[in-house]
Amino acid sequence: MRKLRIDLFFALLIVIVAIALSAIVYMRLVSMSIFIGPYRLNHWVTIIGTAYIAVATPLFAVLRRKYPQKTMNLFRFHMFGNLSFFAFIAVHFFSQMARTTLPDIGTGAVLFLAMTLQVASGFTQMFHLTKGLSYQRNTFFHASLIAVFYVAIIFHTLHGFGLL
Predict the structure, then answer these.
(1) Coil, strand or helix: which one is 77?
(2) Distance of alpha carbon 95 from alpha carbon 144, whole angstroms
């Protein structure tokens, strides 16, 4: 139980840091418009964050089945890794929202909403924060959102390259 409280503390800390960084970027106190190669810094952070989540999530599912005795450590890897890289995606989203000419945010907004719901459902699942929602329903909802993540990433990327 003590480990769960420590995990909750660090998970909330990551969320608070993500909110703070997103606010700083949104208020334009820090610029994410620096070009590194062909893309801006804000695009690189989301490419890194998305790639990590896209690879680590199915890897987590496979490893959890292969090594059931290590489930708690794998949950921690999944939770802290995905939360950290969700922070990258949040910074990108709010960087885009802060632009003077607002981009077409349709697929990005869907993606960010799906990711936010995923984080919320992961919190309720990991830390048993809801009494009215069954664990099985929450698990199904949480796992189902990854399909939305993959579909939205595909459409968001195609739209970003002007192919849609």
Answers:
(1) helix
(2) 27
